[in-house]
């Protein structure tokens, strides 16, 4: 039914695709100007709506770089209730900056986490407020042409490659496929663990990277669940009954992973970036109380966890656990990816100019 409805929307996609293509051409011809900064900017983004693993990739970059550099992140702060430029501090909540920046702020308190609707305005403000900053990671900024990053990392999901998709509303693309040529690095995310060399080469041929573009492959790797408030780790036994609570774009990989943990689970699924209400909390607790097993827990994602944290008084006595995820590089190419990132930043540090055009 949904596919048939999307076919009806195909003419609108053609029109919208032309608008996006024309806008990109204006930037390519310098009729619309992209601001450049003599500073290492790493952009993480995608062409499609939905979850390709942008925030976990930002986390990966933070872990890679924080031992050597003062790192900051800048994002729009999707669905926050505030406006303008802001830097996270001890009093900040997900309502102030959005769930994904809040997730980064909680996990990496030593870095600067900032939000601004317009990155071209936010970057100078960030550097003014935090002059010791040495690297800025722009989260979900690939389609924002007002800023030209020195290194563009484009993510595309294995199960929904941008090459097989179409422009909204008939498809899930928010940018034209040809925009992929602006990427320096393309990462195919959420791959199956046993992806073989033949499949790898087939996908690379389909993407058809330009000379100099590097293509990497990652899978999702989940770490041990930890309690939302006490941070205590927990092993999930096969007889544990799990109530999964999530509001993410694509819960499919999470559901597939749960089958490896337990034989029994139930789900309450909300829209992506859902802001939990008191009524939602009551429904979650009601569903959890209906589970008769003595060995039961609630499980949620890190992104959902930062939005549930405001209900600490209501949830602190319940077994609410968070399941963290990371990118794991396939085909032994993690060192190659790391070297690409480090070389880009180091080149700026020594010469004051980007590694790539």
Automatic annotation (TrEMBL):
Organism the protein comes from: Ginsengibacter hankyongi
Family per similarity comment: Belongs to the LpxK family.
A GO molecular-function descriptor: lipid-A 4'-kinase activity
GO cellular component, one term: plasma membrane
TM region positions: 6-23
EC number: 2.7.1.130
Pathway, per record: Glycolipid biosynthesis; lipid IV(A) biosynthesis; lipid IV(A) from (3R)-3-hydroxytetradecanoyl-[acyl-carrier-protein] and UDP-N-acetyl-alpha-D-glucosamine: step 6/6
Biological processes annotated in GO: lipid A biosynthetic process; lipopolysaccharide core region biosynthetic process
Known catalytic reactions: a lipid A disaccharide + ATP = a lipid IVA + ADP + H(+)
Function description: Transfers the gamma-phosphate of ATP to the 4'-position of a tetraacyldisaccharide 1-phosphate intermediate (termed DS-1-P) to form tetraacyldisaccharide 1,4'-bis-phosphate (lipid IVA).
Protein name: Tetraacyldisaccharide 4'-kinase
Pfam family, one: LpxK
Entry binding sites for ATP: 48-55
Upper classification of the organism: Bacteria, Pseudomonadati, Bacteroidota, Chitinophagia, Chitinophagales
InterPro entries xrefs: LpxK, P-loop_NTPase
Keywords: ATP-binding, Kinase, Lipid A biosynthesis, Lipid biosynthesis, Lipid metabolism, Membrane, Nucleotide-binding, Transferase, Transmembrane, Transmembrane helix
